[in-house]
Design brief:
alpha+beta; globular
Length: about 280
């Protein structure tokens, strides 16, 4: 059972306290080759103008996808540090797969291409015959997997992604193997059928909306910044490449105003009290 997966991995790693563990040369070579492939894919991304609907993005908010399909006109450049995050996310996923293979759990179908309603995707793997999606997460995001609350706040559409993979594979007991990239902690979350979204309905909806010239409603409403009366972007908007054009009507038509705080930029849709930090001139 995949519910015992974390215990199996931890038991294996605990043996390192007493000496070497069984990590075969074959596994070292296999993981090394997978890391090489991850580096190749990371360093050779598709041109930003090549958009397609895939299982990995069908859970995104509809307005964001609408902009994605026209991204040569709307997308801002990705920050250099974000590419570093992408890289160690890819590498960490390969390490996690290695740890699973070191246990008695069976890993199959790594990066298998699947198809649902003409939409393609690649599953991370199956573990013990069930679809498993591997996720690297911050401490905040990790808690949603560990506590089983992902469906309540899923800005990146992970639930829809898993549901699509399972529908394509005609299975229903898959889940997420998540790692806290700050602490190394692991958790396994298998959502129940009652909270899984319907991927076929979603795909048909997306196909229709992307053909329309009228953009969908905004994905998220702004949220208060303390009690000052200032309003800032919701988290789901902060990481979107299209926030500048999407919110060009903010601040009375001035557009977003961004200020540099100690923990990063905050993007405001309304300024009632001027923040006492540096204002940035561009996103």
């Amino acid at each position: 059972m995949n519910s015992l997966l974390i215990k199996d991995i931890y038991n294996k790693l605990d043996k390192l306290n007493d000496g070497p563990i069984d990590l075969s040369e074959e596994e070292i070579e296999r993981t090394g080759e997978a890391v090489k492939d991850a580096l190749r894919h990371w360093s050779n991304p598709k041109p930003s103008s090549e958009f397609s609907v895939r299982m990995s993005n069908i859970g995104k908010p509809l307005r964001q996808m609408w902009f994605d399909s026209r991204q040569e006109k709307t997308a801002s450049r990705i920050a250099p540090q974000t590419f570093i995050k992408f890289l160690y996310g890819h590498l960490l996923e390969e390490i996690i797969l290695m740890l699973v293979r070191m246990t008695d759990n069976k890993v199959t179908d790594e990066q298998k291409e699947v198809d649902l309603e003409g939409i393609k995707g690649h599953i991370d793997c199956k573990i013990n015959g069930e679809v498993v999606d591997i996720k690297t997460a911050s401490s905040f995001a990790f808690r949603k997997f560990a506590e089983g609350t992902l469906h309540e706040n899923d800005p990146f559409g992970y639930m829809m992604q898993l549901s699509a993979y399972e529908a394509a594979e005609k299975s229903s007991n898959g889940g997420f193997l998540a790692v806290n990239k700050e602490s190394g902690e692991l958790t396994y979350y298998s959502p129940g059928d009652l909270i899984k979204p319907n991927p076929i309905t979603r795909i048909n909806n997306i196909k229709g909306i992307l053909q329309e010239d009228v953009m969908p409603e905004k994905c998220y409403e702004p949220v208060p910044e303390g009690k000052s009366g200032n309003m800032k972007l919701a988290v789901g908007c902060v990481y979107c490449q299209h926030k500048a054009i999407c919110w060009q009507d903010a601040n009375g038509g001035q557009g977003l105003r961004s200020f540099k705080y100690a923990n990063g930029l905050r993007h405001f849709t309304r300024i009632a009290v001027l923040p006492k930090v540096e204002e940035m001139t561009a996103l």
